[in-house]
Amino acid sequence: MRRPRLLLADDHRLVLEGLGRLLEPEFEVVGAVEDGRALLAAARTLKPDVVLLDISMPLLNGIDAARRLRKSCPASKMIFVTMHDAGAYVKAAFEAGGSGYVLKRAALRELILAIHEVLAGGSYVSPEIETDPDQPRRKILHQFESLIDQLTPRQREVLQLVAEGRANKEIADFLGISVKCVEYHKAGLAKKLGTNNPAALTRYAASAGLIPGGLT
What we know:
Radius of gyration: 17 Å
Shape: globular
Largest sheet: 6 strands, parallel
CATH topology of the largest domain: Rossmann fold
CATH superfamily of the largest domain: Response regulator
Structural class: alpha/beta
Helix content: 40-55%
CATH architecture of the largest domain: 3-Layer(aba) Sandwich
Strand content: 5-15%
């Protein structure tokens, strides 16, 4: 009987190795990548049954990668495996096409169950996920939801790359657009977010989970 094929995506090599050891006795791990753009390329080639992906990944975050995978690899199920435990992240993950959401600290006891639930057509969310809207993090979660709602996909890409410290030329090369287009999108970000300060943009991107360093 064919074992389900899994593709892993996380920017920490030790996490990838740990997940591989946990899952390989029961599943076929067909690939492991460390950034969102590598994930898109690998998924198109490998066509996995399930993609396990983090939210905060370099070059392209997991939420935006999932949106693209939903179109390019519609048969692949997606389970987010992440440190982010706030309800807003879960909402964004499922809206992007996810079927499961497992906290990294619970992966050892929950991940295999989550994979089976998702493969059977169901969904899975770690039971300890924060869902109370009156939690003290509500203000930052509102910022996160506003970011997702207000920015275009290209603006989110540019924001992430700016927050990662990429220069305009490097951003242009990554996205296949001109430097002038990058400047245009940065101007749009400044207008929507009310700042063009790199440090402020980095904090905004981190609070949204686009880069590491947000809510934990």
